[in-house]
Amino acid sequence: MDLVLTILVEGLGYASYLFIVSLGLTIIFGVLKILNVAHGAFFAWGAYSCAFLIGEFSVMGVSDIGTMIAIPIAALVVGVVLGSAIERTIIRNLYGRDEVIIVLATFGLFLVLEDVILLVFGVDPYFAFQPTLAIPGVQIGGIYQDGYKLTMIALSLVVGLISWLVLNRTHWGKVVSAIIFDSELAVAMGVNVKRVFYVVFLAGAILGALGGAYIAPTISVSPGFGVEVIVLSFAVVVIGGMGSIAGAAIGALMVGMLRAYAVLQWPEIELFVVYAVMAAVLIFRPEGLFAPAKARKI
Amino acid sequence: MKPVHIAGVLGVGMAAAFAFSAPAVAKDTVSLGIVAFLSGPAAGPYGVPGRNGAEMLIDAINKGTLPAPYNTKGFAGATVEAEYIDESGGNTKQVSEYRNLVQKREVDAVVGYVSSGSCAAIAPVAEELQTLTVMAVCGTPRIFEEAPREYVFRTMSHATADNVAAAHYVKEMMPDVTSYTGINQNYAWGQDSWRDFSLTMTDIMPAAKVSDKPQFPKIFAGQYGSEISALSLEGAELVHSSLWGGDLEAFILQATPRGFFHQKKVVLTVGGVSAYRLGKRLPDGVAIGSRGPYGILVRDRDTPLNKWFVETYNDTYGGYPSGAAYQYAQAILATKIAYDKAGEAAGSFPSQQQVIDSFKGLEFDSFAAPVKMALGGGHQAVTEHMYGLVKWDADAGVLSVTDVKVYPAECVMPPADKTSVEWIESGMPGAKC
Questions:
Q1: Contact at CB, A270 and B43, closer than 8 angstroms
Q2: E strand or H helix at A266, and its extent?
Q3: Within a domain: A94
Q4: ipTM beyond cut 0.90
Q5: CB within 8 Å: B39 and A118
Q6: Whole-prediction pTM value?
Q7: What is the mean pLDDT of each run of 10 residues along chain A (298 residues)?
Q8: Which of B48, B221, B225 sits opposite A123 (nearest CB)?
Q9: Thinking of the domain B29-157+301-382, which architecture would CATH place it in?
Q10: Is A290 domain-assigned?
Q11: Distance between CA A297 and CA B262 in Å, rounded?
């Protein structure tokens, strides 16, 4: 029983941050049809900005719990500023282009943004552990789990719920759904598609940065760590289906649970279990488990 | 034979004889390519301190301000010019960079390399291009165990010493340990480290039970929640780890709030490298190594060279030198000594072959401990090894180490006629501890 509980908690913890990052990636792809390799840079910039702000707040005497305000600030600032700059200068010129060109352009952008991090923040790591000290841990399954990780699970649930509500219960959500279904028809119906693209790209960028900002207190924020996340996020959205929120959630849960099971029971397979599942999904359902239905044009 | 032909033959013969017997042409400068991680996750813990250590030492060598007996200017009198190259980007890129340094920029020697992967890729290329190459940090024992080398040297002990010394330290300081496990990265470094540690433990603490589920997370994984849970659930008393850099720091940051370091005894073979970066976040009581007599473990050693190194580094870069700074500086120092010794023997500026001949089997006093180029036909260094327990000194506001134990090179490194694995598996015959 202890083992099952531990796999559940660890799986949910890992899945939660993957879900937040993958959600941003998948909504950008779903709406803009842009496979944004530079999404890992939003994650890295969010983490660096958050770690920097937590350090500054701590020096100013803000309490450990109070430093958590840095998380939404970093996510919003990075998402809006960096997201706007990138969408207006680069992404906007890629709409409707060949997928290979989009991947190459965003990959180049990712490399540039990683190097800019070195220029701005240097090569030394940032530690922003204060929030993890502020939230007490709990005993689950015979071992002590840190409280901060449990709040991450709660945050991912809230983010997932808000995303679902916005897409399914608001006018904006209906507009976005219309564009996903058929952007040409949406234009014909008077939808300002470019504006929607811009807003959705910002939302995706904020989610990417939020994933990085929330994870920052638990890691050594150092150069190059965005690469690992973008690879895993791609695995998540490929498993779940590109452009599907439910798919991102299920994909993240599958990756998180399988990884937790492998680490706890069969460590030798941990390295490839995620990619084995991704390969299996691609073989039997190439469009992913929850790929949104596509309109057939006659 | 016509007179003109005789003169020609004599001329060619004399020229050839002169070419073979003459000393190398006098040089004003020696150019070095220095390779270290200047970007990516290894830049902070290794690359930048390593570059700093090399830069500081080269500056002192050119000015002749190193403490005696190394206070002669330059390499055999020639000013040292350094070109710094980023080690990031993988082995293929490193081989290209190396060829570029040697064939296009025509450097006299290449110094550096942190990654075992880089060293394994560069060693055969160095032999092919016949260029003096001094490896500063990388740990894999395979460099000199798998093939003889003529142009390649390594100026610190290899990874076997880290793990054999760790096992000795556990036996000495934690003799009651009844079971142990490990968390090491899933590549050559991590796997070799765990193999050497667990084999040595089997030799010297046979009653301690080894885990059948050691953890091997991917390098640069960053998230260790599941691994920490697995280690916690397993119940082994001791955890061995060769995690380094950002991976080690993330592991510590994630394990600390979960009380992991109160439940387990932990030995970190490379913990010393991150000691200054983590400060009080490195939990008290954790056993750390620094890959030999370097960094925090020798900070207070009272030798003139060590005092100079620590003070000058602090004045120049604002902080204590970590292990990588020592190790890169040691590689530069060894190269200087080899050049000086060869120059002195030749009576003029030495040729590369003369430098190599003087490098083989070299023995010298480095910053904190003596170095002997004793293995691999005189190409692989051995030094003493050290471990200690972390202690945060709240009054002074600095991290310190207590209960430091020193293990002689003959205790933790294999003899010249055996590979590391052969030596450990056969019960470490001849070890002098």
A1: no
A2: none
A3: yes
A4: no
A5: yes
A6: 0.84
A7: 89 93 92 91 96 94 94 97 95 90 94 90 85 89 88 94 92 89 86 92 96 91 82 90 88 93 88 88 87 64
A8: B48
A9: 3-Layer(aba) Sandwich (3.40)
A10: no
A11: 64
